[in-house]
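Changelog entry: the Pentatricopeptide repeat-containing protein record was regenerated in this release. Current contents:
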Amino acid sequence: MVLQRVEILQKQGKFFDKVPLEFRNVVTWNVMVDGYNANGELEAARKLFEMMPERNFFVWSSMISGYCKRGEVKEARNIFDRIPVRNLVNWNSMISGYAQNGFCEEALEMFKKMQSEGFGPLQVDEGAWNCTKSYYIHMSSICLQSCRAC
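Regenerated structure tokens:
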């Protein structure tokens, strides 16, 4: 099954490479980048991503998610920091990536930054929200323990 998907992706890549640049659009680029990311082919995805003449929120988030799924949160953050105009999907991708990799403090900082840029707390996705709550609960228990020690 996996081998079959890889073979299909390779065939799509060969076909895509033959399509003249003037006939490629943001959708065709996005499909290829996301396909590579979905199959763990981050290097191929990154190569196409860097070649793209224009990028939309979808492809930025696809790259962030791809790196986070592989545990490369620092590289995901580098991608995030390059986004010229961020939307809610981009913010949630980065916050969730931090959360899924156990970086709750960083997720919380991103959550706060997201709010400071005009996005409300109810707009964050469930995984990021749960991580934020867990962080506050953890910090509260540390405070309570230190108070009991007094």
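The chain has one domain: 2-149.
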